[in-house]
Amino acid sequence: MIFISKILFFTSHHGFYTVMILLLFFGLLSWVTKKAWLLAPILPLAILNGFAGQYLNAWFLNQYGVEITAVITSDVQTNSTLNDMYIHDYEAIVKKQDGKYISTYFSTTSASIYPIENAIRIPGMDQHFPVKYIPGYEKNIVILYYQSEEGNVLLKYEKMAPVNSAKIKYEADRTNKEFIEEYISALEEYVKSYDNEEYKIEELKKDLKQLK
């Protein structure tokens, strides 16, 4: 597992050198065997690593790693951009199982984050957040963003959005059955994760029965 973790860390953090190694390996293999078609995998493997290297790393670490905490100690904005946003270089310390810390690094483009999604969300500096790694190679981490304090706040906000939308409709017309049903449905979905006495679902159901 440690060997696999080292390989995935290298390929996800050093895309250029990974391409060079692919060129060298398959080029040498093609030269030794005198088979030109062995050069074919270079381009697709290089593209695959560029797009999915960090996702594969995130899946592997979440599947087989152990959970611990880390803290970002440095956040430096670079001059490079990704989707019109500046890329950041990060340094962090990771708590080992013996209680000591080890330094690591990653960037906006190389960070492994779980759950895997089309978004790059990294906790702020000086905040302890959960990560997973393979014991013995602690510098390769996957960030468990939604288990962090910052991630929980964002997740709660996102789950609250349908409730707020339905509430506005309901308060605009409290006699509209469709609006009441939508409000009840949104509240029921919300309280599956967040129990809050403020939401009087039973009262809304009574109001709905009176309209039927």
Radius of gyration: 24 Å
Low-confidence stretches: none
Strand order of the biggest β-sheet: 3-2-1-5-6-4
Termini separation comes to 61 Å
Assign an overall shape: elongated
By secondary-structure content and strand pairing, the structural class works out as: alpha+beta
Q: Specify the helix fraction band.
A: 40-55%
- How many discrete structural domains? 3
Look at the structure and give the mean pLDDT.
87
Instruction: State the total count of DSSP E strands.
Output: 6
What proportion of the residues form beta strands (DSSP E)? 15-25%
Main sheet characteristics:
6 strands, mixed
Number of helices: 6
Oligomer: single chain
SSE topology string: HHHEEEEEEHHH
Keywords: Membrane, Transmembrane, Transmembrane helix
Could you explain how this protein is built, in words?
- The chain is α+β, with helices and mostly antiparallel strands and 212 residues long.
- It has three domains: 52 residues; 85 residues, no CATH class; 61 residues.
- It is 49% helix and 25% strand.
- The protein is built from six helices and six strands; from the N terminus they run αααββββββααα.
- Strands 3-2-1-5-6-4 form a six-stranded mixed sheet.
- The radius of gyration is 24 Å and the shape is elongated.
- The mean pLDDT is 87.
